[in-house]
Structures are given as structure tokens and as C-alpha cells.
Design brief:
about 500 residues; alpha/beta; Rossmann fold; Luciferase, domain 3; GMP Synthetase, Chain A, domain 3; ten-stranded mixed β-sheet; 25 strands; about 30% helix; globular
């Protein structure tokens, strides 16, 4: 059996070549056309000198060309290094240098957006020049084993430069198999694509859709009203987003005040979704199954909450995905009791191979299974996620915070996420982020950065915090902002928030 993830496309094209693989507004790319492009690009990559197990940078707009190049890199046995096209030269140069990519596939349109030329030793392969004069479908994907590297996915960590998770073909097989199973993705589905292919969630939508023979609907507009109108017109059946996606869509009449008859599934990942947002989604689209999912780059997808549990447990991240196990461990490595907070440790076939060229960091995060069942290979590794969770009596998991974001203040260990939850519960804020600030007396103090809701009041928010929070959990300062900076993946950009002042509301 060939475990090459390129076979998702080759197999789908053989089953239903005339069906739409991708759609964008009035444009449509069939599976046969996408296969022809990927096959032609594969020949072009080989002609350029790309060999097996070689990292290849991909810097293209999300769409048919980017999808075809990704499958072409897989097909020749290369290692795809997909970068978001909004990245600036410094970030691109960092990723190319650390991945060791000798080639960068890009386009003139993307490069024209940069304020300066890239300073890199990688050879530029223009996507137009890479395409042979005649399309072909005769390329056969290289044989790959499950543990062969398929991709290096660079994290969009909010607190520093990205690091690369090494993803195998087996990881991608396991991810798409599990997600397609519980979401019941079929050829009749039209899956929305709002997120970059550089993001696990975004590339997962492409790969899951392709493996199932469904249609991926590309939407590029940054305007929530336009997104809602376009996806409704496109008869999207599966809509996935991050927390900021749902907050923005709920602010539009098209999504909030009108039923979408074609829509059958909504999925959330990329961050914990607030309970009020969960309830609002259930209220405005009650016929749609809502899946609350949890994952991280190092393990792709870890858990999901079945939609029939959402109304009873809107704050839960669910249970392990099919074929995987989640452990909740104390600091001494022993299992935490029900209701006790511990670190989420994940075991399963989506555990990636570690950090690319980072053996020390890999050893810190990817460790031997401390609760290894009899018969399990000694080499099996699990991921210590750094996320703090608790498990209830029904086995459902609840997010409690980040281990590496614990702030020590007034002698207490505080999770900023706990404070953020209370800020949102006040009803006065639309967005919130809490950071620690050094303090000579207390070691650190909490500073809240908030965007007030349309009817929100700073005075009422302060009174609420004084009433609901003990002194050690109470922000020493609340800064009201017009907006909070976001990463390309829709998460709050905490590093940027620390580095420079953002617009302060007057």
C-alpha cells in the first residue's frame, strides 16, 4: 500500500473526475483538472531538481494552484513547507532557513506585495514557469511509508517565532480518516475554506475534502457580511472556523437572522469557544450540528465534542478522536482524579514526529508514554501539550488554561484564561486578553486588554471584577482598545500586544 497523501487526489480523480474539487465564486476546478495540474507540477518539480525527502517552500494564495502544488510536492516524495501568503519577508526567510528548503514555489502576484525582496538562498520557482506547456495526468506518486515526512507545519505561536512540526504521511492518513468519520464527510458535501493552507485546520479541510471527494469552497473576503452571503449562495454544507470567525459571523444579518438550509455541520477549533458564542450559534442555526474540537499543531486533532452533547456541556472540548487516547496527568506523571486539573497528554496516530531539527525541544514535548499499556512498543511517544484540563464524571474534558502561561502573582499561580472567562461573563466585553506584567512587589500583576461590547462600560466592568474576582485574580489595570491584534490564524497575537501599543479607545 502506498501511504503517500497525494493518493487522496489520485484516488478521488479516478472515482469522480468530473466532480468539482474546488469552487470559488463562478470558477470551478474538477478533480480531473486538479489532478492534471498536480501531475504536471510534479514533473516540473522533478525537472527543477527536487528529490525525495527534500523540503520545498510553498508561498501562494489559497486556491487551485496552491492545492495542486501541495499534492505535487507530496507526489514527488518531497516535504511541503506551506507558508501563509500574508507573511512578511522576515518570517518567510526564517521558515526557509530553518526548514532547509532549497526551493520556493511562489508567484509574482504574492511577491509584489512584499516591501522588499526576499534574502534567501532558496531557488525561486515561479508557479507559471513550473507548469509544462501541456498538462498531463500520467505522473504516479512516489511510494511513501507511514513514517515518511510529508510536511513541516510551522506553528503560529502567539508568543514567539514559529517552530516546525514534522508531519508524516501516516499522520495525514489518520487525521483525515478520523475527521471524515465523525463529521461524516461525503462527496455531496461542500466544505468552506476560510483558513490558510499553512494552518493545520486549513490544510486539514483541503485534505479531508479531497479524500472524501467533496467540494472545497474557497472564500477570500475579509468582510464577515460578504463571507456569509457568499457561503450561503454557494450552498456550503460544512463550515469550520476559529473563535473570531464565529464572533464576526454572528454580527451579520445574513448569518444571524436567516436559516441556511444547506448547512448541516459547523466546526470550531483553533481556540476555546466561549459558552455565550456556543449558545448563540445553537440559537441562530438550530438545525446544524455543532462540533467543538480541540487540537494543536504537534498532534493535529485531539478531541471533539459530539453535537448531541453541546447543549448540556457547551464549555467542554469533548473526548479523544477515534483511535486515540487522552490522559490527564499531575506534575508527578500520575493520573489526575475526576475534577482535578492536570496536563493534557495525547496518545494516537496523529502525534507528529517532533520538531524539525529541534531535538532538545522535541525531547521536552514528545516523551515516552508514562502509562504504557502492556505490549505497547517502547518507542511510542506521546505529546505533552502544555494545556491544563479537567475531566468530569462522564469522561468529558474541559479546558482550564495553558501551563506555560501560568502567572505567579501575590503568591498564587493564576491562569489568564480563567480571568478572560470572567471578563466575558460580565457581558461588557467583545474581546479580551490578559497578560502578566513584571512588578517589584508582587512578582507580576495582571493587565487586561479589552474591546468593549457596543453597550459595554469600563466602570461596570471594573465593578464586576471587584465583585466576582478575589484580589489575586483581579486585573491591576484594564486597558480599553479599539481592537486586539490577531495572528493569521485568528488567535490573539500576544507577542504583538506586548511589543507595541495598539489603538486605545477614547
Amino acid at each position: 500500500m502506498n501511504s503517500n497523501a497525494a493518493m487522496f487526489l489520485w484516488d478521488a480523480a479516478a472515482r469522480q473526475g468530473s466532480a468539482a474539487a474546488l469552487a470559488e465564486q463562478e470558477d470551478r476546478t474538477s478533480y480531473a483538472e486538479l489532478l492534471s495540474k498536480a501531475s504536471a507540477y510534479a514533473w516540473g518539480l522533478m525537472a527543477a531538481g527536487v528529490v525525495s525527502d527534500e523540503p520545498v517552500g510553498i508561498l501562494l494564495e489559497r486556491g487551485p494552484e496552491a492545492a495542486a502544488i501541495l499534492f505535487a510536492v507530496f507526489a514527488v516524495g518531497g516535504i511541503a513547507v506551506v507558508m501563509d501568503d500574508v507573511l512578511r519577508p522576515r518570517q518567510i526567510e526564517h521558515i526557509l532557513a530553518y526548514s532547509g528548503a532549497r526551493y520556493l514555489v511562489s508567484s509574482e502576484a504574492v511577491r509584489a506585495r512584499h516591501p522588499r525582496a526576499l534574502e534567501t538562498g532558496a531557488r525561486l520557482l515561479d508557479v507559471r514557469a513550473l507548469m509544462p506547456a501541456a498538462l498531463t495526468s500520467d505522473f504516479l506518486p512516489a511510494r511513501r511509508l507511514e513514517n515518511d515526512v510529508a510536511q513541516i507545519i510551522y506553528t503560529s505561536g502567539s508568543m514567539g517565532m514559529p517552530k516546525g512540526a514534522t508531519v508524516s504521511h501516516g499522520n495525514l492518513q489518520a487525521l483525515t480518516g478520523a475527521v471524515n468519520e465523525y463529521l461524516e464527510i461525503s462527496p455531496s458535501d461542500r466544505v468552506a475554506s476560510l483558513l490558510p493552507f499553512s494552518f493545520v485546520y486549513g490544510v486539514g479541510q483541503l485534505l479531508c475534502s479531497t479524500r472524501a471527494g467533496a467540494t472545497l469552497v474557497i472564500e477570500r473576503s475579509p468582510l464577515p457580511a460578504q463571507i456569509a452571503e457568499s457561503l450561503s449562495a454557494q450552498q456550503v454544507t460544512v463550515l469550520g472556523g476559529v473563535p473570531s470567525t464565529w464572533s464576526r459571523l454572528l454580527g451579520t444579518n445574513t448569518f444571524r437572522d436567516h436559516a441556511w438550509p444547506a448547512l448541516r455541520v459547523m466546526t470550531n477549533a483553533g481556540g476555546h469557544l466561549r459558552v455565550d458564542i456556543v449558545r448563540a450559534l445553537r440559537r441562530v442555526q438550530p438545525h446544524v450540528k455543532l462540533y467543538l474540537m480541540y487540537g494543536l499543531t504537534e498532534a493535529l486533532r485531539c478531541s471533539y465534542l459530539p453535537p448531541e452533547e453541546v447543549d448540556r456541556h457547551p464549555d467542554s472540548i469533548g473526548r479523544a478522536i477515534p483511535g486515540a487516547q487522552i490522559m490527564v496527568l499531575r506534575e508527578d506523571g500520575t493520573p489526575a482524579d475526576s475534577g482535578e486539573v492536570g496536563e493534557l497528554v495525547f496518545r494516537g496516530p496523529t502525534v507528529t514526529l517532533g520538531y524539525w531539527k529541534e531535538p532538545v525541544l522535541t525531547a521536552r514535548v514528545f516523551r515516552p508514554n508514562p502509562l504504557r499499556p502492556i505490549g505497547t512498543p517502547d518507542c511510542e511517544r506521546v505529546v505533552y501539550t502544555g494545556d491544563l484540563v479537567r475531566r468530569d464524571g462522564e469522561g468529558l474534558l474541559y479546558f482550564a488554561g495553558r501551563k506555560d502561561r501560568i502567572i505567579k502573582t501575590m503568591g498564587y499561580r493564576v491562569s489568564p484564561d480563567e480571568v478572560v472567562s470572567v471578563l466575558h461573563a460580565s457581558g461588557e466585553v467583545a474581546e479580551a486578553a490578559v497578560l502578566g506584567e513584571p512588578d517589584t512587589q508582587w512578582g507580576a500583576v495582571l493587565v487586561a486588554h479589552v474591546v468593549l461590547s457596543p453597550t459595554g462600560s469600563l466602570q461596570r466592568l471594573q465593578a464586576y471584577c471587584n465583585r466576582e474576582l478575589p484580589r489575586y485574580l483581579r486585573p491591576s489595570r484594564i486597558e480599553v482598545r479599539e481592537s486586539l491584534p490577531l495572528t493569521a490564524n485568528g488567535k490573539h497575537d500576544l507577542a504583538s500586544l506586548l511589543r507595541r501599543p495598539w489603538a486605545v479607545a477614547t
